[in-house]
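Sequence only, no structure available. Ideas?
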Amino acid sequence: MSTIDARLTELGLTLPQAAAPAANYVPFVRTGNLVVISGQITLENGVLKYVGRVGEDFTTEQAYEAAKLCGLNLIAQLKAACDGDLDRVTRVVRLGGFVNCTADFTEQPKVINGASDLMAEVFGEKGKHARAAVGVNTLPLGVAVEIEGLFEIA
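Reply:
I predicted one. Tokens follow.
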């Protein structure tokens, strides 16, 4: 068991199955020592969760949990990109977070912290990253949050 797999177990986290792409794209691209992971939504083992708008259907705290689920999906894709060995991850470089929210909602950074906090918990110092947290008027399948990621691997 890798160090990161042990850390996930210690945190009581189980990675979902890495989702297949839903359109004409690939779930990740490896180029050199970088892995770019396509946007991950609030899919949990094939079931959509958190469908709706933050500020209308979900609180900031609920949306934080949605972002954490997106983060778990990112890590699941990353594990696939690393041929099953998450210890190859040398840095979480950047997350791009999108929040499906009402026009007056302004707590996008607090929502995306769900994924950011997860990366720091799982990868430690290597999990600290640059990011964007953006509010949008809709997301695929009506989900509340979508997050993409850029990672460095050995």
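The chain has one domain: 3-153.
Hope that gets you unstuck.
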